[in-house]
Structure formats: C-alpha cells, structure tokens
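User: Structure please.
Assistant: Input sequence and predicted structure:
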Amino acid sequence: SAGGAMAAAMLATYPEVFSGGALIAGLPYGSAATIPEAFDRMRGHGGPSEQDLQRALRGASDHQGPWPRISIWHGAA
C-alpha cells in the first residue's frame, strides 16, 4: 500500500525520529522511483536486488545511532 511504502520512506530517511514502525503491505524503501515503477513492483515485476535495496536504505540517512525496529505485515491473498 502507499501508506506502507510511506512508512518505509519515513523510517529510512528519519531514523533518528522514530524508535519503530509497522509496514503493512508496503514496498521496500528504494524499490521504485516513479508511480509506474511502484505499480510494477506491486505486481511482482522486476525491482532492485537485495544489495541495491540495502545500499539505498543505508544511503538515505547519515544517522549513526540505532535504527528503528520494524514490524512487517504482508499477505499473499
């Protein structure tokens, strides 16, 4: 969902503000740069590698403290 993707973006870019968050059916941070790409990713088409996603996440903030804890909820229905 867009809310899940937005939560991922907020946790990635402002980790010093949040101690934790929940992602419900959202895309990982850095998985899409445009709305058409996001729709493709939600349909399971393409996407960055796990290593590219990690690089995007670690590059989103220069925060040196602890990263927020997350709970991820996703279904296959």
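Helices lie at 2-13, 35-42, 50-59.
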